[in-house]
From TrEMBL:
The lineage of its organism: Bacteria, Pseudomonadati, Campylobacterota, Epsilonproteobacteria, Campylobacterales. This is Core-binding (CB) domain-containing protein. It comes from the Bacteria.
């Protein structure tokens, strides 16, 4: 799978789907899966506000810190 295809939101949604397909096959607890899902959905929502400035390739610690403050 290519790292990027379009904007960061679409790329994150694509990677989220692949991640949860793999993750759910590893017999994780439902609460763990739900928590990961919530955090990833919040990051995707945050990414909507920076999608003109950030790509998957340019995510760095400043982007993560700003997400945590979001």
């Amino acid at each position: 799978m290519e790292l990027t295809n379009s904007n960061i939101v679409e790329d994150l949604k694509r990677w989220e789907k692949a991640f949860f397909t793999e993750f759910s096959q590893k017999n994780r607890l439902e609460n763990t899966i739900a928590q990961y899902h919530r955090v990833i959905e919040r990051f995707i929502e945050y990414s909507r506000s920076v999608q003109d400035e950030v790509t998957l390739k340019t995510i760095n610690s400043l982007v993560i810190v700003n997400f945590l403050l979001f």
